[in-house]
Specification:
Layout (H helix, E strand, L loop, with lengths): L2 H27 L15 E7 L4 H9 L7 E8 L5 E4 L11 E4 L4 H35 L2
Antiparallel strand pairs: 1-2, 3-4
Helix pairs in contact: 1-3
């Protein structure tokens, strides 16, 4: 695998992890939003990742050798189907006749775990890029 291909794969992974961080931050920011444009409480969003299909050149090269390079991309950001949590708060402006408010189905602890996992994966990508850069510098020094 070439150094440039390694950098491309790493950049794709970092982009996907950045999207995961953005979605987790959006979920945390809206954990108390009881009314959206549709009048319903905010629904938690999740990132769906998929392996990128190989182009013919990459598929041919991987068939000829032991390496199989697959990237990743964000396929979609979907809303959760979980029901909103009902919290008893009769003084809230969005409370129903029984005094219950439909709150978003966002668990702050789970979102922080998602955020930390995405941040660690992003950091791993930066480490890979740094190593590839050092390898390229070493290769250039050999040619001197």
């Amino acid at each position: 695998m070439t150094l440039l291909k390694t950098m491309d794969l790493t950049a794709a992974g970092m982009s996907a992890q950045r999207t995961r961080m953005n979605v987790a931050a959006m979920n945390l920011a809206n954990k108390s939003t009881t009314r959206g444009p549709d009048g319903q409480p905010y629904r938690r969003r999740e990132v769906v990742l998929e392996a990128t299909p190989q182009d013919f050149g990459t598929a041919f090269a991987s068939a000829m050798g032991p390496e199989a390079a697959m990237g990743v991309r964000v396929q979609d950001v979907v809303e959760s189907n979980d029901a909103p949590m009902l919290v008893y708060d009769p003084g809230h402006p969005d409370a129903d006749a029984a005094g219950y408010v439909a709150m978003p189905n966002v668990n702050p602890i789970a979102e922080m775990v998602n955020l930390m996992g995405a941040a660690r994966a992003y950091e791993a990508g930066t480490s890979v890029l740094q190593t590839v850069r050092q390898m390229a510098e070493q290769a250039l020094r050999i040619g001197r």
